[in-house]
Amino acid sequence: MTKNLLKIRKNEILNKIYNYSFKYKTIGEKYLFDRRISFRNNVSYLPKLKVSKLMEVAGCSREELEKIGFVFNGHKYSFLSGLLLPHIDHFDNVNSMVFRSNNTTGRRYFNTKGAFQIPYNFEKADFNKDVYVTEGGIDCLSAIEMGFKNVVATPTCNISKQMYNSFQFFKKNIYLIFDTDSAGLNGMVNVYKTMTSEGFDNVSFIVLNMPDKLFDLNDCLKAGFKKKDILGFIQSPVNVTPPKVLPPLQEIDKRIKRYYNREVSLVRLVESLTSKDGVHYKCPFPKHSGEKEGSLYIYEGQNSFQCLGCKKGGYVWDFAKNMVEDPDDVKSIIDWLKEHTGK
After folding, report:
1. pLDDT per position as a tens digit, 118-129
2. How many angstroms separate the CA atoms of 185 and 256, rounded?
3. Which of 69, 146, 162, 176 could form a disulfide with 113 if both were Cys (CB 3.0 to 4.6 A apart)?
């Protein structure tokens, strides 16, 4: 099958899934309403759909679903249930979509692969006006709800080359406004660097100094903020070079650590991962495997731990650092904590 035929086939599958899910859009609208979003833009919903039913709806094989990334090998999903945010072009074709899962384990976001990628809300964008680019469709809808005009969204903070190409349609200023966690800020700076190196001279990025516990635009919306408040949070001027923006990352990292150390019960986290041996737990750290007797002790009052075997100790953040492959990779630590705590 040629590349063009393959692309057409993928678009056919995506459009069939979207058309089916659109029947349940009222559930998706409730999902948004719970997040204070009343603006609607082609939002749909998959209602606890088994993979076999999804294959029937799409008229394709499981292999084809896996090729476009909608169903992943190795993930423990017996069904798919959650919000669909389709990325639609000006010809009303679903070229890609983001699936925000309700399942409590595994990955939350599913980005379809292979199809030409465009930003979310692209079909409603005005190419001749300034545009704001958020990280994720929920933040895009939140920005519109708060009073921003002409907003589109990338699926994640890391975007593809095809996505970069779609931004060439915008003739005025492009303002990147991603999440304020370290992953979002680093991603925004990387996108800025890549776009400027590709010849974009109209791109800028905005760093927001949000109040504690607020990390994205939906957090701000739920807290009652409007556009004027968001603009008041601007910590750095637009059109600045990345080195002037990078220092706030250190402070953001500290705030993230404090949040997890305070909000996550270390006892519950440890009990979900390992068994207890008397007053100690068996150490679950990958680099301390094969332990026969428990050596990990939890200090509940301090929400901290100490392993007598591998000599590691600290708080929730330190515990998570020991569970990931690279303890210096802040994004992987956050992803691990989100997966295992839901926060």
Report:
1. 888 988 899 999
2. 13
3. 69
**323 with 305: CB under 8 angstroms?**
no
- Contact in structure between 14 and 59 (CB atoms under 8 Å): no
3-class secondary structure for 111-159? ECCCCCCCCECHHHCCCCCCEEEEECHHHHHHHHHHCCCCEEEECCCCC
Pick the CATH number of 264-341 from 3.20.20.70, 3.40.1280.10, 3.90.580.10, 1.10.340.30: 3.90.580.10
Distance between CA atoms of 172 and 21, rounded to whole angstroms?
Answer: 35
3-state secondary structure of 306: strand
| Spatial separation of the C-alpha atoms in residues 199 and 194, rounded to whole Å | 9
Mean pLDDT by groups of 10 residues along the chain of 343 residues: 62 84 85 80 78 86 75 54 79 76 51 66 90 91 93 82 83 89 80 84 82 86 90 62 41 68 89 85 83 83 88 90 85 83 78
Please classify residue 250 by burial: count the beta carbons closer than 10 Å to its beta carbon, then call 0-12 exposed, 13-18 middle and 19+ buried. Answer: exposed
Two tokens, residue 342: 């839901």
Instruction: Take residue 84 and report the two structure tokens written for it.
Output: 């669909």
Q: What pTM does this model have?
A: 0.64
- The Cα 19–Cα 99 span in angstroms is 14
CB 172 within 8 A of CB 164: no
Tens digit of each residue's pLDDT (9 = 90 or more) over 208-233:
878 877 888 999 999 999 998 888 88
| Residue 282 to residue 285: CA distance in whole angstroms | 9
Q: What is the CATH superfamily name and number for domain 3-111?
A: DNA primase, catalytic core, N-terminal domain (3.90.980.10)
Tokens of 101: 């899962």
**Most distant pair of Cα atoms in the chain: their distance:** 67
CA neighbor of 282 nearest in space, from 309, 312, 314, 313? 309
Do the Cβ atoms of 93 and 11 come closer than 8 Å? Answer: yes
127 phi, psi to nearest 5 deg? -70, -15
Write out the two tokens for 202.
């109209």
